[in-house]
Amino acid sequence: MITLFVAFLVSLMVALVLTLLVRNRAVAWGWLDQANSSRKVHVRPIPRLGGIGIVGGFFAPLCALFLVDSGVGYHFRSHKELVAGLFIGGAVIAALGLYDDLRGTGAKLKFAVQFAVALGLYAMGFRIEVIANPFGPELVLGALSLPFTVFWMVGVVNALNLIDGLDGLAGGVAFFGVATNFLLALSRGDMLLCLLMAALAGAILGFLVFNFNPASIFMGDTGSMFLGFVLAAVAIKTSTKSGTTVAMLVPVMALGLPIMDTLLAMVRRSMLGRPMFSADKEHIHHRVMSRLVLSHRATVLVLYGLCGLFTLTALGLNFANSAQSAMLLCGMGVVIVVMMRKLGYLDLRRAADVQQVRQRNIRLRSLVKDVTRAVRSAPSLQDVWNALRPLAEALELSRQELRFRRESGGLTEGIVFETQRPAGSAVPFEVSIDVKDDDDVLGSLRLVWRDGRTAINRDEELALEVVADAVAERAARLHAHEDVEPGRILALRR
């Protein structure tokens, strides 16, 4: 136990120091997560490289075991496949997350790397070969072991990434998963898994000092994907060594909140015709915050309580017999159904509108795809504007305006493209979206409706953000006044 405490303490201190250093350097160098998206909860720029502290804190005591001549160190080094899988796979996932935090990467590259890492772990012996069933005989996967293992690894990695939407939420959720695995390993006398979980617990708590609301740094994809990777890998080892009849259900229940949130997101986006990897504000933490009218911190604490309930259920499943396990699962199922009804996920009154919303979103996605393709290939700002003009009719706008500006001689010179169309006579509702290249504001996209609305449709808002990003990407490569024939050119003074 002394070794476990030392590992916890070392990882805690390393994570504290690293997170503090990364936060200060990120602020000095301007590596910040800008609050420039409607789905962002924070209102000021905040560093998002805190995952470096988690990764460093986790690996620090483990690396020390290679240098210490002790029984624990020998036992750790003797498990070569486990150590190699965690070190190599963890390093690759952390590097992918760091690259995404600094430069940004698409879903294709993310999934390619995640699938490659999962396949590598499978080759090293991280395999799910049996699915336990508390209501009957266990199911031997056979040839399905490989796809199921890969699906589990990739799914948990992205589940932790999706749940990272409020200060302290992803770290706290991961900590409950770590605590569950630690207690299960301790009950079996598996000191190696206890050591790994003690190191990860210290790293998480060291980071949470700076991440709990109000956060001064975010973990970013570096931290969320790394946490998901370690928990997914350790869960496989935990389940394969379990002698209970519900072996694989225990880690599933331990990570119940992020897994449930991910499944809900997949179903929701599929039914509503939204891109599967699009961002929205319909996650469980968003619903708890809005439906229950809770503060940021209160929402996180409520979800911590839910994670505690999942943890207790997971521990109960580990020690229960088949009948008791069935009762626990039924009880937890009732809790989940009640919670989903309370948060509006099972609102049958909205079911009739789903198909209509789906068709509208499919048309909107097709429009955005065509518009962004035309924008990215536009040879001039005039052509960028021409590519945007179909938005006016499709969105039933009364006015659409695109402004570009640049500094010149103390003035803000601007190029303004505009179009108007008869579309209602109600009080105008206006939306303005910044056209930004990193932190540099190139202009704005302004849209006005006169159809009586008082808020913009969420799907339209997300679509317009995608369009604005494409305009910014293209405009940054074009000279402000070359080959331009706008309807009018204005000098916009401050």
UniProtKB/TrEMBL annotation:
Keywords: Cell membrane, Magnesium, Membrane, Metal-binding, Transferase, Transmembrane, Transmembrane helix. It comes from the Bacteria. CDD domains: GT_WecA_like. It holds the Pfam family Glycos_transf_4. One of its GO terms (molecular function) is phosphotransferase activity, for other substituted phosphate groups. The keyword Chaperone does not apply. Mg(2+) binds at residues 161, 221. Its main location: membrane. The chain crosses the membrane at residues 46-68, 80-99, 111-128, 140-163, 169-186, 193-212, 246-267, 298-317, 323-340. GO terms for cellular component: plasma membrane. InterPro entries: Glycosyl_transferase_4 (IPR000715), PNAcMuramoyl-5peptid_Trfase_CS (IPR018480). Its cofactor is Mg(2+). It is a multi-pass membrane protein. It is found in: Cell membrane. One of its GO terms (biological process) is cell wall macromolecule biosynthetic process. This is Undecaprenyl/decaprenyl-phosphate alpha-N-acetylglucosaminyl 1-phosphate transferase. The lineage of its organism: Bacteria, Pseudomonadati, Myxococcota, Myxococcia, Myxococcales.
